[in-house]
What does this fold into?
Amino acid sequence: MRATRMVPAALAALAVGVVAVGCGSSSSSNGSGDENAPIKIGASLPLTGDFSEPGKAAKQGYQVWQQQVNASGGLLGRKVNMVVRDDASDQNTVVADYNALISRQKVNLLLGTFSSLLNIPASSVAERNRMLYVEPAGGAPEVFDRGYKYLFFAQQATADHQGDLFAQYILSLPPAQRPKTAAYPSLDDPFAVPVLDGIRAKLEKAGIKTVYKKVYPADTQNFDAIANSVKAANPDLLVHGATFADGVGFIRALNKVGFQPKYFFQTSAPSFADQFSKGVGENNTQGIFYAVSWTPDANTPGNKQFLDAYHKMFGNTTPAEDAADAYATAQVMQAAIKAVGGIDDQAKLADWLRHNTVNTILGPLKWADTGAPQGQFLIGQWQGGQSQIVLPKPAATSDQIVQRQATAAG
It folds into this structure.
């Protein structure tokens, strides 16, 4: 799963097919003024292409929410119909998709797509049309620097703050255990790079020396050269900015060259549950840290119901974090609609979110005026083939933090 830097906002519109999700027709016209018609909610997701794994997981989260809402009587007493288009992980296509959802599918509401890369242009379409746009995965700081009024991110923090607790943990270690050097390879991606920059700024300020820093192109598939360079730098701490495929590929390359740092933090990829452990091998997961928005063990409002519904619909597997994020995104939208009592004036929905906290399966979420969330991410770690939450302590599912067996460069 790879990403590229965003292209200019003036993107070409490309026609793509429509995928109907859930019950009911997705092609009928549903005017928001018809109090008996189903409410149509549109989203474009990367169901194919580089972001297809998280895109499919996000679709599952939206499906679970839709099923539960309709089973409990609908939204504002009206059945919910979702229309999901496949943007193929392409910035041009996602713009065309959201324009089509609004102008052709005549949706009443929008939900966001996956990644900062796709949400940056997609949210511009929503803003121009004055439609609420809650997104499940798009935490790059630049997303919230545009003065938008309808945009909200349904996770706990923007990318530059998602590693804060990890950095605090490293700096809390006794001097004899604290890393002296660190390496920072990253995918060229507007989410991954700020996570690393946020961690690096804190660690460099505390005297941890950066011995390697590189941003590699989105189309990189062979990570042997990067792994060899990291091995030569021999860092005590390795912080890797990744999505999924490149995260797995990089760990395989590290194993090939025979290098394991004492501390290893990686973005995104380790949160993919069984997909990650199968991709790198269970034995190779031990001790890897990551930032995560959700855990299946969380005692948050609706989490058990979400898990039960997910298992009934998709089998007895652990949902990916992106499924939970999408579900929480729909919860946020639903809370605003319930509080306002309607969907016609979406400026009111946005105003309500700016001034209120919403309880979700991720925990309580609140926002700054920019739509950026004001909270703190969980820090997970793989231990004994299982992903555990280790920070903050009140949310921890394991009472220990384990260390990897470091392999010195030779």
